[in-house]
Amino acid sequence: MSVGARTYPAETAPEVRPGATVSRLKRWLGPDWRLGFLFVAPIVVLVLALVAYPFCYAIYLSMTRKFVGMPPEFVGLENYIRLASDGFFQRAVWNSVIFTFGSVIFKLVLGMAMALVLTSKIRFRNLFTGILLIPWVAPTVVSALNFLWIYDGSLGVLNYVLVKVLGILPQGVGWLSEAGTAMAAVIFVNIWRGFPFFGISFLAGIKAIPGELYEAAAVDGANAFQRFVHVTLPGLRTIVIIVVLLSTIWTFNDFAIVYILTKGGPGGATMVLPVFTYELAFGAQRLGDAIAVALYMLPPLAIVIIVLARYMRRGHAR
Amino acid sequence: MSKTALVRLQTALAYGVLSFLLVLVLFPFYWMTITSFKNEDQMRSLDSMFWPSPFVLDNYVQLLTKTDFTAWFGNSVVVAVSSTLVATAIGTIGAYALARLRFRGRAFMSSAVLITYLVPPAILFIPLYAQIRALGLSDSLAGLIAAYPSFTVPFVTWLLMGYFESIPVELEEAAMIDGATRFGAFHRVILPLAGPGVLAAALYAFTQAWNEFLYALVFITNVKLRTLPVGLSGFITGDVYGWGYLMAGAVLTTLPVIAVYIYLQKYMVEGLTAGSVKG
After folding, report:
1. Of A52, B29, B108, B186, whose CB neighbour count within 10 A is largest?
2. Global pTM?
């Protein structure tokens, strides 16, 4: 059943009788309109108050010069124009792109590995599935703090292992304080937290692929790799698209990991757009600029959201 | 290569990758836990890195007596529980209506819910803050309780729409033929069946609210009113990073979520995938 594609009973021949208008109105509203409207009303109120209204207000604020505690002054598109040539903004855009794609690609690879391992013939599959999902349910802030401690330049365990245990490095590295490693370090944490979601989704997708397809491929002499390429991957196509798009949105907007690990430093090396927005708004107190930055993120996000919503609706309709 | 050797190789490879993933996933939690039982001297001297020696509870004592941790814990419980109750109530009836009832505007609202679920907080947090402030709710837990449904309700609704759609429509029709009203069919037939799904959705909403960081960071300035994630992250702004009690706090913040997760792992794993990847 497709949401929205439901057909209503064809209108019967108009009869002249009292109440005909009422019944036509009823038909227009749908047979269950009373309970329907009642049940949906709280969501409507909520979406209007907490999403639609703030969103419209944001568009207005982005066209003002606004400082906290002062009345906004309308300046049109000035904020947007100034930002377009602002070096810090351009750098934040670029950093966000690297952060997002770097994270999503590795999450895809690790998630696929996780799903394949969990569908192969190993013991305690359910237990391992549960364990591997823990980074996804644990509080992001806790994970970020854990890694802040692991990465610590002088007392951190990562340097300890690399220098003292394995002897790979002559001396410790300030993973988060050096421009060359900071971005990779924050990306790693995002991958660590996010790949289990890829894994669990792919796992569900693989389980839904009919076993006969694999048997048929095996009969035709396909080896494990060929079965993966010709049966598993095509069967996972929709799920891969949905998960990658979802993760792109979430990663692009990830605030906690970068904020806690580096606050965008060192020297702006990991300054991604959400942290940049926050710093502009609550550090520099430039609210108008901050919202303009946030709204600059909107067009690419809107495209992703619209494409994704289509895929998700299609999945739901079955 | 013979066929059995190939199968054996594949199994070995699977266990190899599995071991790698397990170490990757579990090490940070292991490290967090043992750090919380080490004393300051041991951390500074880099002795016995991988096991606390001596094994001390000082960090927990310090955390619970010398910091605002217990207040933050209470705040987190209040905010997460209240916003979960709101989200579950609104989301359950809304999802039922959007999944089952026939009325004008249903398709539009289904889309609106999905898009709201996908719009990220990073775009909304400043205007939402302005609104919460205008309502006089900034710097109060009420402000967070009011704001959190902006992400928990669309999420719960979307998750449960899939769940309600999977319950056979014939059950309701049978009840209605037997004289039940539409509401009666929902109340007596569908709700009991949807119990596990509603519970899973509620627990998801709870963990989301429990873990939320950005709104809590922006809306609350009073240190005593912080929630756990913001409170914990506040430990790192000082010059001295008390890693011991910070990690003790991290352990205690993670435990409730892990407890919920272990208890409902089956439902949660199913629910997690049902929301995004059905069909």
Report:
1. B186
2. 0.89
